[in-house]
Amino acid sequence: MTTATRTARRPSTLATLWRSTVGKKAVMAVSGLVMLLYLVAHMLGNLKVFAGPDDINGYAAWLRTIGQPFLGHEWFLWIARFGLLAAVLLHGVSAYQLSRRDLAARPSKYVHKRRRASYATRTMRWGGVILALFIVWHILDLTTLTVNPVAEEGHPYQNVVASFGRWYVDVFYIVAMLALGFHIRHGFWSAAQTLGANNARRDRALKLTANGLALVLTAGFLSVPVAVMTGVVS
Ligand code: HEM
User: Fold this and answer.
1) 150-175: per-residue pLDDT in tens?
2) Is 134 a residue whose pLDDT tops 70?
3) Terminal CA-CA length for the chain
4) What are the C-alpha distances in Å from 228 to residues 142, 171, 185, 220?
5) What is the pTM of this model?
6) Ligand 1 centroid to 45 CA: how many Å?
């Protein structure tokens, strides 16, 4: 075999990294941090609902003009959507593959009772499934407006108020936001460990940041359905 064919057959560094367990964990950590940044911006944007319809509807219109005239109308939004979709897919696929690997590595043939995954792992898996279902519903409800009762394009305020006027939607949002809080708390801490950001000196600060982020995001997101349910926003 010539040196050229040997070089051609060697998998790239990226492919080797993707196949390794530590590589998949790194992909989960980085894609998770990308989504976290989006969530902080999205939560702050949502709080504009408390400033009234003109504020949040104007903000939604502005989001579609970012980068103009260099970029066209909604281009920035589409770039962000594709980036976010890539992050969601990479996160979900690596989580699924890691959990398959974890199951395959268990010595179930030799023990009668199968060892169960830890409480944190099970919470992360179920939380991830709830969040994936939530995102599908949420996009159909407030972006494509397919399942929204008023479905007024360009009027997120009216769409949000109409959506949270349904009790079952409120229950689903509350459950999903609590799952989001647990997911962020454990996920942020795991990401810090995977990326090697933790050490004896920083552990306390990282745990505090994980708890703080989870609390602020959960409370910020929950405040909107709660405000509609209590009539503060109507
Ligand atoms: C109660 C909490 C939330 C409210 C009131 C809310 C509100 C909204 C609204 C009004 C839109 C449409 C924006 C527009 O068309 O300009 C939207 C889009 C979106 N939201 Fe949320 N959101 C909440 C929580 C979340 C959470 C927790 C996530 C992620 C886990 C999320 C992910 C998204 C995504 C991915 C989009 C689509 C963005 C796009 O393609 O334009 N949202 N949200």
Assistant:
1) 999 999 999 999 999 999 999 999 99
2) yes
3) 73
4) 15, 13, 27, 14
5) 0.91
6) 9
- CATH architecture group of domain 23-230: Up-down Bundle (1.20)
**Sign of the Cα pseudo-torsion (189, 190, 195, 200, in order):** positive
Q: Which residue has the tokens 């647990």?
A: 182
Q: Which of 186, 183, 192 is nearest to 29 (CA)?
A: 192
Residue nearest to atom 6 of ligand 1 (CA): 46
Report the distance separating Cα 69 and Cα 189, nearest Å. Answer: 40
On the CB side of 53, CA atoms within 13 Å amount to: 10
Which residue's CA is minimally distant from atom 9 of ligand 1? Answer: 142
| 174 in contact with ligand 1, CB cutoff 6 A | no
The Å distance, Cα 42 to ligand 1 centre, comes to 7
